[in-house]
């Protein structure tokens, strides 16, 4: 695990965008695993700028997103399909037919999860999987639990996740209580993982992920077993990791 510490969110986002861009340049037809939430927004802006400047092209890229709220249509302004369109896909030269997000309106959610696993496997899994980090240590919507769930599955969101996501909705009551999420099996099958984190609120989760035991109580801790993980954080998010004496790069 390589850990890079940047001064702030902007610098963290710039490095993350450069890492993703390098993957696309190296392998133009790569499979990118993508994440949503507030953390990757500036990273995506950096990729949009590079595409518009002619530094890279997404024409051959395929993408697989981590998750989607159960019960939201892709056209809903808080769905993750809508997020991806607004924050990345609509502004780059990717073929939308090559972008994949779980269907939150699937009549049979369990079948949708099985089909999504088969889809990701058929693409050969992600060449690079981008991850954010929940305040409770979740990756995707893999919440703290008594065990790691390998396959894509329907998950009941914890109250802390609902509270954290309430800022995107009119009220906490409007936040969906369930989501379809890629399991840790698909995430760990990616050839490379890039996890980004910013802010003091992520310091505890990042410390537990890197320095704590491997436990489903902190789902991100499973990444300690992955052979190629890059963590990019800012000073605030990595503060407790640095205090613990872990070596970081700048």
Question: Describe it for me?
Answer:
Helix 2 (41-52) links the parallel strand 2 (31-34) and strand 3 (62-65). The chain has a single domain (2-243), classed as Rossmann fold, CATH 3.40.50. Helix 1 (9-26) packs across helix 2. The protein has helices spanning 9-26, 41-52, 80-87, 109-122, 159-165, 184-189, 203-211, 239-243, and strands at residues 2-6, 31-34, 62-65, 67-69, 99-100, 128-131, 153-156, 178-181, 193-197, 229-234. Helix content is 32%, strand content 16%. It is an alpha/beta fold. The protein contains eight helices and ten strands. The model has no long low-confidence stretch (mean pLDDT 96). It has a seven-stranded parallel sheet with strand order 1-10-9-6-2-3-5, covered by helices on one side. Strands 4-8-7 form a three-stranded antiparallel sheet, covered by helices on one side. The chain starts with a strand and ends in a 7-residue tail after the last helix.
Could you give the distance between the termini?
A: 14 Å
Please compute the radius of gyration using only Cα atoms: 17 Å
* Order of the strands making up the biggest sheet: 1-10-9-6-2-3-5
Order of helices and strands: EHEHEEHEHEEHEHEHEH
Tally the helices: 8
Structural class: alpha/beta
Percent range for β-strand residues: 15-25%
Number of strands: 10
Biggest pleated sheet: 7 strands, parallel
Report the principal-axis shape: globular
Q: CATH fold name, please?
A: Rossmann fold
In helices, the fraction of residues equals 25-40%
Reading off the top of the CATH hierarchy, the class is best stated as Alpha Beta
Outline the low-pLDDT stretches.
none
- Determine the mean pLDDT: 96
* Domains (count): 1
The CATH architecture can be given as 3-Layer(aba) Sandwich
């Amino acid at each position: 695990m390589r850990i890079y510490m940047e001064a702030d969110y902007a610098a963290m986002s710039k490095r993350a965008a450069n890492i993703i861009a390098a993957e696309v340049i190296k392998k133009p037809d790569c499979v990118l695993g993508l994440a949503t939430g507030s953390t990757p927004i500036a990273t995506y802006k950096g990729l949009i700028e590079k595409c518009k400047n002619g530094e890279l092209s997404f024409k051959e890229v395929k993408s697989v997103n981590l998750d989607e709220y159960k019960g939201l249509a892709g056209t809903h302004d808080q769905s993750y399909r809508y997020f991806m369109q607004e924050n990345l896909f609509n502004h780059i030269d990717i073929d939308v037919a090559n972008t994949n997000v779980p269907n939150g309106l699937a009549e049979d959610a369990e079948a949708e999860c099985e089909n999504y696993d088969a889809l990701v496997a058929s693409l050969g899994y992600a060449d690079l999987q981008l991850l954010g980090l929940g305040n409770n240590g979740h990756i995707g919507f893999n919440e703290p639990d008594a065990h790691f769930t390998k396959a894509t599955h329907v998950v009941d969101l914890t109250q802390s996740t609902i509270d954290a996501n309430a800022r995107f909705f009119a009220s906490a009551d409007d936040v969906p209580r369930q989501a379809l999420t890629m399991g840790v099996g698909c995430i760990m099958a990616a050839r490379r993982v890039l996890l980004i984190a910013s802010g003091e609120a992520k310091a505890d989760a990042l410390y537990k992920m890197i320095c704590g035991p491997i436990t489903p109580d902190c789902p991100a801790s499973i990444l300690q077993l992955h052979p190629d993980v890059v963590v990019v954080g800012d000073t605030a998010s990595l503060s407790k990791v640095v205090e613990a004496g872990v070596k970081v790069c700048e």
